[in-house]
Amino acid sequence: MRWQCNLARRFKKDSAYAAEYKAFMDNVLAKGYAERVPQEQLCRNDGHVWHIPHHGVYHKRKNKLRVVFDCSSSYRGQSLNAELLQGPDLASSLLGILLRFCQGRIAIMADIEAMYYQVQVREDHRDFLRFLWWPGGDTTKPLEAYRMNVHLFGAVSSPSIANFALKQTAYDNTDKYSMEVLDIIKHGFYVDDCLKDQWRHVSSKENPADTASHGLHIEPFLSSTKWLRGPDFLSKEEAEWPKGPEDLGHIRSSDPEVKGNTITVNCLNTSNGATCKLLEYYSSWKKLQRAVAWWLKCKKLLLLRCQKTKVIVTRSKSKERQQGLTVEDLDEAEKAILLHEQQRYFEPELTLLKKGTPVKADSSLRKLDPILNDEGILRIGGRISNAAIPVSLKNLIILPRDSHVSKLILRDIHQQVGHSGRNHMLARLNQKFWLPSANSSARKIIKPCVFCRRMQA
Ligand SMILES: [Zn+2]
Question: 202 and 128 share a domain?
């Protein structure tokens, strides 16, 4: 076997490599993540056996060896990953998590150690995860068959399974823990990383989220340790932590950072609470769009930092590291906001349409014959026969009637058309969007407009 010879040769040549490899395997076995296949089960012949090759990979930053099980490796045209189903994407929206992370006065970060290893594989499936190893790492001994008892990092099904297990744990323990704890488990985790609102005040200088909300150039961002380690005081004794806001002195009400109403962090039991509040915090469509665009850019950069394969980093580096926001960034932000708002207001319709079922007869969108485009955005469909809706409105993005975002878009259009009245506004609106009762919504924007009043006076 070539794999066996190569590994044995490498061990002979590099004793440090051999020692680290052995230590990794010892740990996997000692923790029960894997076990030796019992003698009587070695000859399983129902076709439910697969052997996975493994090799060592050095973690660049930590300079630590990790043994990688190659689930994509193929034998006679077959591979484990090709047979496994990926499962649904159960990860919470990173945008939502980041927005919530930014909302609290203090943020707590935590993670689950070796998350996939915490989820057991069904006993009758474990022989699909067999591997060969020398007992005690001693290459003079014959290789023996071992098998994983838990999920592997390289298997395509592992992320979905681990996310499901994590969320199910929350559901199974509903009666044992508070709503806040369960909600954090359900919504605060991005894979194995938890971001939680904390309860202490972090000064603007110390707050990693603050950096992002102001916008910054990429290089300082990447070298900022605050984002990776959190504020410096977290590593000190609790007594040295900053005091609560009552000790912060008087804050001027004219301070541009102060909003008229205090923002309280008490929306932990609504899944979308944090995102909705953030969207409502902005009174200008352009500012909201830019803020979300920055968040999406941060998300990409954070993901990029986590990427293990060089290939992906090289390919996306030039684009993602561009400084400032591009037109594409803003378009993407617009899409993210629209998706969020449509999900909030049209959830039943979206659920049906995603399944390929038409919306219910009593839906307010029924007569628009709504469809979903490739990006999952709800638009006016192609078969509208209702005389009230001209054919030219086909494919317009449907906006919810009383949503804050719809108002921001309408107000933005009002400014774009130079405060020139309702008809102009609606014509511009209908180049892209469909808003029910747009007439009365437009009136509500024009009526309080200070500029328009002054013009008429
Ligand atoms: Zn106006």
Answer: no
Query: If you average pLDDT over residues 267-282, what whole number do you get?
Result: 62
- Cα(364) to centroid of ligand 1, in Å? 30
Are residues 447 and 405 located together in one domain of the fold? Answer: yes
Residue 380 CA to ligand 1 centre (angstroms): 29
Task: Using the mean position of ligand 1's atoms as its centre, give its distance from the Cα of residue 446 in Å.
Answer: 5
CA of residue 149 relative to chain centroid, distance: 28
* pLDDT category of residue 203 using cuts at 50, 70 and 90: low
Q: How far is the CA of 338 from the centre of ligand 1 (A)?
A: 24
**What is the whole-number distance in angstroms between the Cα of residue 326 and the centre of ligand 1?**
29
- My answer on whether 153 and 164 are in the same domain is no
Q: How many domains does the chain have?
A: 3
Q: Give residue 20's domain range.
A: 2-88+114-157
CA of 281 to the centre of ligand 1 (A): 21
Q: How big is the chain, counted in residues?
A: 457
pLDDT higher than 80, residue 106: no
- The per-residue pLDDT for range 356-383, each reduced to its tens digit, is 888 898 888 888 889 998 889 999 986 6
Domain identity same for 191 and 119: no
Task: Indicate whether 17 belongs to any domain.
Answer: yes
CA distance 165 to 4: 35
Lowest mean pLDDT among 168-182, 235-249, 395-409, 443-457: 235-249
Calculate how far, in angstroms, residue 425's C-alpha sits from the geometric centre of ligand 1: 10
CA-closest candidate to residue 340, choices 391, 400, 390, 395: 400
| Domain edge (last residue) among 277, 307, 323 | 323
Q: Could you tell me the distance, in angstroms and rounded to a whole number, from the CA of residue 426 to the centre of ligand 1?
A: 14
Whole-prediction pTM value?
A: 0.46
284 and 351: one domain?
A: no
Spatial distance between the Cα atoms of 374 and 61, rounded to a whole number of angstroms: 39
User: Which DSSP letter does residue 8 get?
Assistant: H
